[in-house]
Design goal:
single chain, alpha+beta, 4-stranded mixed β-sheet
Length: 180
Amino acid sequence: MPQDGSEQPTREVYLLFAHEAYYPAAAQEINTSLVAAASLLHPHVRQPDGARIYDRLTRGRRQGEIVPLSTLTHELDGGARWPEVGDWAAVTADLLQLIQDRECDGLSLGLPDIARALVCSGPRSEVRVYDPAAERYQVYGPADRIEVLVEVGRQLAWAEAGCALWPGDGLLVPVNPREA
């Protein structure tokens, strides 16, 4: 996990973010999307915010790592430092528009409620769900979140079979915010 920003950027990192559900086909809900980190450098993404998020997202990561937006929020002191990096809401809205306009590839997912809640929670968070039939709470934690990310990784591997996610054309050069 990046701490001081001294790590080198890693290519082939992915951003996973939840968003308002939409329905491209009957009975198919899409509520979460995954894009190649380089999509943040697309000229139709709010800049320099996209480039700053790209820098933060790719530093010190493992090749092929899927990083939920909530993990970045956790790393940015629970979101307190987002203003230093950029407007994540505007950037993810731009990314979603790129996906819908087919200006970049994205893995569009319809995650079940609990899986989506886990992805939207920080890496050490728990999600409690009340089961009225059993009259008790079920607690889902970090191990369950990892399982969700592993499953997303499987879907990504299937989607990328033979061809990596395309981040779009005309990408900007990454900016090192420590030099800006």
